[in-house]
Amino acid sequence: MIEALLATAMRTPKALTHAQMVSLLACDQTDALFQAAYRVKCETLGKRVHLRGLVEQGNFCSKDCYYCGIRKSNRAVERYALCSDDVIRMALWSYEQGYGSVVLQSGELASEEHTRQVEHILMELNRATQGQLGITLCLGEQNEETYRRWKAAGAHRYLLRMETSNPVLYAQLHPADHRFEARKQCLMMLQQIGYQVGSGVMIGLPGQTLDDLANDILFYTNLDLDMIGMGPYIPHADTPLGAGLTLDDDFRKRQLILGLKMIAVTRLQLHDVNIAATTALQALDEEGREKGLLAGANVIMPNVTDVQYRANYQLYANKPCLDENAAKCRNCLQWRVQSIGEEITWGERGDPLHFTKKDSRHVLKTNTRHRL
Fold this sequence. Notes:
By secondary structure, the chain is α/β, with parallel strands linked by helices. The protein has helices spanning 2-11, 18-26, 30-45, 84-96, 112-129, 144-153, 167-173, 180-193, 210-223, 249-270, 279-284, 288-294, 307-310, 326-339, 353-371, and strands at residues 48-58, 101-106, 134-138, 157-159, 196-199, 202-203, 227-228, 231-232, 274-275, 299-300, 343-344.
């Protein structure tokens, strides 16, 4: 049965039903599952890995999510906010090192001052790189005007994680003023504006079922997303959800395998989207990111933030590479990717093939209308 499902999924994107995805997520034939997903990735996208230099701009946050280490109620974390010049410097270092893209990430803030700062950073990066640097924003819920201003200033992609597509579970993970529908509406707004849009979930949350995870993949499918950034849930001791939970070996193994299965089944369902092998995988296993690539992922986001800030941007416990400078990380990452037979796409933006296809169809349709 599993072999037949894998054959169908490898042949045709979006062919899996909810029940079939649950079967794949529950199956013990992980080698066959990962090999099938990796084959789809290689045949669709090649043995190529896109890098996104991650700049953690600051850890001030207006949100109070029960799982997050930088939630606004966490008094144990030392807050910081990088100045614009430092963000630009770190991003340009990434560009000069051959990273085709960067991700600008911070806690969620919504103010005119913050909007202007990000706008300035984007304009300066585009001026300095002549628009050659791919820029992903991961800055949370904003209004339409802010999203449009950032797009006009030079942002290409936006990653807004839902963390779960189950509204009931979402409500259990957030205070009452955090609204599931508002976040979902932001994703649709970003698509309408013209961003390459991504989302993702935490995998292995307390109370989460395989039905939920299959629905998460259907959520990606139905929203026609271009990028998926998801990772295993890892508890943080200074949060309501993580208090009292222990990160023992059994927990690590369960979360790692489930995380890899989600990458594989998502690849089998969606074929041509970008999927990240997130740092959370490496927090569970030293070779977690490489295993993520071999399960169907094609993006890695190495941290290029100055070392002195990294310990204060821990969304979860046991975050790796806190004391490894960006240059050392680059060399290590190159060796790791090459060791599994993959190639880093130095100097390329690495736009999702899924978005490129959609954009081409849109241009063709527009030109056809004009001719008529």
